[in-house]
Amino acid sequence: MTHCAEDYTIDELMVVTLARQFTNDDIILNGTVSFIPVAAILLARETHAPGLTWVAGAVGVDAQPGYLMGNTLDPTMWKNCVMYLPQWEDMWSYVHRGTLETFCIRGAQIDKYGNVNNTVIGDYYHPKVRLPGSAGMGDMGSLDKRIFIWSTTHNRRTFVERVDFLGCVGYLDGGDSRERLGLKNGPQLVVTDLGVMDFEPESKRMRLKSVHRGVTVEHLREQTGFELIIPDEVPETPPPTEREIHLLRDVIDPRGMRKLEFRGAGKRASNEK
Amino acid sequence: MVARKKDKVMTLVDAVQLIHDGDIIALQGMGTQMSPLALVREIIRSRKRDLTVVMVVGGIGLDWMIAAGCVRRVLAIIVNLDEFGMANAFRRAVEAGEIEMEEYTEHQLLSRLSAGSKGLPFLVTRSGLGADLINIHPETTKIIECPFTGQKVIACRALEPDVAILHAHRADLYGNVQFFPKPIWTDVDVFPRAAKKVIVTVEEIVENEEIRRTPIHTGIPYFKVDAVVEVPYGAHPCSLYPNYSFDRVLFQEYATMSRTVEGTRQFLDKYILEPASHAEYLQRVGGAEALLRIRKWS
After folding, report:
1. pLDDT for residue B1
2. Residue extents of the structural domains in chain B
3. Considering the domain B12-103+160-295, what is its CATH architecture?
4. Is A269 inside a domain boundary?
């Protein structure tokens, strides 16, 4: 028997939704400040996908850190791994060949074709805002990854008609433009604080899949800076089970590191040290 | 360039003499991990200018150097302080046009350095195909066709930094540098091979015999190393796994103070310019109490 949880928060729903996308066959590596994806990986492993392979911080193969600690690239995440993957020869070989196929990304701007920008707002050489940079997603967008996008700021500033700077290649201009460049896979799903989107198979335009509890389709549409494809029937995002919530709160992320990814989270969730 | 087998142990003050204004510096480090920050503080105190800094993941040391006016240009894939947020001095300097940011994908930047390390004119990658990044540095990345299949790939022009600076667990006086559990991150691997000169700070200097008992941990051989400096806690406030964690208190203080130019200047004065030595710096950041705190991983 699975019991649906009544008491859950948006961060928990996002983690659970992402976790349910991962399968036993996935080999996933994570990047920087990725508390929500790493929590989702650990949760999937504890529930439906015990065989999922996680390369912690792109170093610790099949690591077992127990729970989320410092940041997601920290060596503390490598605990109990079977191998420290040398980055230059091994990790990048596996990434290029496609052995490591799944990656989660986020960014300051996301457009209707799943292209992502975390480089600049405005012109590259005279930016209005200089953002941190593309980091690994600049690589992964062009290296045939199955990409899962997460965002804790579903609004018109983040979800824009066209990214100011194309840092991570999604479906480019839509249709077959990604394929014509010889790139396989691409963005699969977008999980935000308001709902879940996928991509319509022909046009590759972003399409609403579900809205979270308490969010209306109209509100999500208003918070999106481009025209989403909206089906006639939009269900509510399936809620977490009581077991998923227990695992997440008490086992995987007792310190609430995942909440750091929300604006206004302010100080670290756990700053007792 | 070959560094001979001889005693290379020196002080931080002497080691920074190997760095000249206008040099290209390859600086090891992640957002909060494993960076030669005692050496970075000495670079700031010696008022180096017009440096080009190459990092995979730019972090707090780079932000300090930018705030102190040492940097003209940055080559990196991202610059931030991990979960402590934006690198504010970097952001302000780029937005004001005071420094230039040459952003790459990780594999483009590493391909440039790896080509440099092998004496090849370029190496190729598929990373970043279709993205805007290759268009912002046409002098160093260019789409070419494979001569055998016609496949489009990106040629990444060789890069040989003048000096690589790193922090490691230990070395002997000749500069055989060891890492625990082993060399892992790309900068430890590619930076020293690509650079013309290599400066390494270490937690401790050990006997040559000790290195010979444990050669599996050696990541850089003596013939690539020009200077060795013994600096316990030399990565602070970054971590050196498994010895000590990053210092959350100091990171948070910098993240808060660096929100303003004035706050950044106060931080640099207090922690970098005023302390006359590394020992005084460690006192300023909390002395034994702070060091005990970061030795407890959680």
Report:
1. 61
2. 12-103+160-295, 119-157
3. 3-Layer(aba) Sandwich (3.40)
4. no
Q: Which residue of B has its CA nearest to A168?
A: B131
Q: Which one of A106, A134, A162 makes the best mutation probe of the B interface by having the most chain B beta carbons within 10 Å?
A: A134
DSSP run (H or E) holding B212: helix B208-213
- For residue A181, list chain B residues with Cβ-Cβ distance below 8 A: 129-130, 152
Burial of B173 (0-12, 13-18, 19+ CB in 10 A): middle
The answer to whether the CB of A84 falls within 8 A of the CB of A78 is yes
Q: Are residues A147 and A76 in the same domain?
A: no
| A135 burial type by CB count under 10 A (0-12 exposed, 13-18 middle, 19+ buried) | buried
Does the beta-carbon distance from B103 to A134 stay under 8 Å?
Answer: yes
pLDDT digits (tens, 9 = 90+) for B205-264: 999 999 999 999 999 999 999 999 999 999 999 999 999 999 999 999 999 999 999 999
- In which band, very low, low, confident or very high, does the pLDDT at B25 lie, cut at 50, 70 and 90? very high
User: Rounded CA gap, B101 and B94, in Å?
Assistant: 7
Residues A29 and A148 reside in one and the same domain: no
The reported pTM is: 0.95
Listing DSSP states for A186-238 in one string gives: EEEEEEESSEEEEE-TTT--EEEEEE-TT--HHHHHHT-SS--B--S--PBPP
Answer yes or no: do A134 and B252 touch at CB < 8 A: no
B188 to chain A, closest Cα gap in Å: 10
Interface of B with A in 198-217 (CB under 8 A): none
From A236's Cα to the closest Cα of chain B, the distance in A is: 31
Domain co-membership, A112 together with A93: no
Over residues A205-253, the pLDDT tens digits come to 999 999 999 999 999 999 999 999 999 999 999 999 999 999 999 999 9
Which of the four pLDDT bands, split at 50, 70 and 90, describes residue A264?
Answer: low
Is a pLDDT exceeding 50 seen at residue A273? Answer: no
- CATH classification at residue A41: 3.40.1080.10
Residue A271 pLDDT > 50: no
Q: Are residues A114 and A224 in the same domain?
A: yes
Chain B, window 262-291: residues with a beta carbon less than 8 angstroms from a chain A beta carbon: none
Q: What is the span of the domain harbouring residue A20?
A: 1-100+241-263
